[in-house]
Backbone:
């Protein structure tokens, strides 16, 4: 179910995720509902995962397992590294569109201009293409991706704000990113890789 996740539970969930990133690779391109105790549901069909997770009656977050095995990320190219530290800068985010809300785990990426959500997540939040709406094409190091821009309500550590997202139009693009636009203007973000931790601190209005 979607609920306010306490900071303690959020940290426990992210710790579980970081400890199990390698094992989760067997679920590449699938959606995983999980919490600090482990996996609740997993499937390529997001609706089935949400239904099963909601039925469990426990808090959870959704993680889209990317189809790569490296641990250094340059969107959307992934490299293997000689380092044994496999932590990734994931963070818990809640997204709301009208009366639909979902708790997600997104990769914090300072190299992404906009936050990015997958095609299925956008559909679940109620997004649909307008008649004759122009589909945009973004050029990345890994090639071109098709997307449309939407605005959505974010909640990070209980702080709510509205920001744009790039809604991908390819079902096979398993990318979920928390990008710079609006987000990085509202928070000072500190990456502590040695501690496997990210700290979001709200900026005072200037």
Residues:
């Amino acid at each position: 179910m979607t609920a306010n996740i306490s900071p303690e539970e959020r940290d426990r969930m992210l710790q579980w995720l970081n400890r199990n990133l390698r094992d989760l690779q067997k679920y590449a391109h699938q959606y995983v509902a999980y919490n600090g105790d482990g996996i609740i549901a997993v499937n390529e069909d997001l609706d089935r995962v949400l239904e099963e997770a909601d039925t469990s009656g426990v808090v959870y977050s959704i993680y889209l397992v990317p189809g790569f095995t490296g641990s250094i990320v340059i969107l959307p190219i992934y490299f293997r590294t000689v380092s044994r530290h496999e932590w990734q800068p994931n963070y818990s985010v809640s997204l709301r569109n009208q009366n639909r809300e979902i708790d997600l785990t997104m990769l914090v990426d300072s190299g992404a201009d906009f936050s990015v959500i997958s095609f299925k997540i956008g559909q679940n939040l109620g997004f649909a293409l307008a008649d004759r709406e122009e589909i945009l094409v973004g050029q990345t190091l890994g090639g071109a991706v098709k997307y449309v821009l939407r605005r959505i309500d974010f909640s990070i550590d209980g702080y709510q704000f509205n920001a744009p997202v790039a809604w991908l139009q390819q079902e096979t693009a398993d990318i979920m990113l928390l990008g710079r636009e609006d987000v990085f203007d509202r928070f000072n973000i500190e990456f502590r890789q040695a501690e496997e931790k990210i700290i979001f601190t709200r900026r005072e209005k200037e």
In short: Residues 7-19 form the longest helix (13 residues). Confidence is low (pLDDT under 50) at residues 69-79.
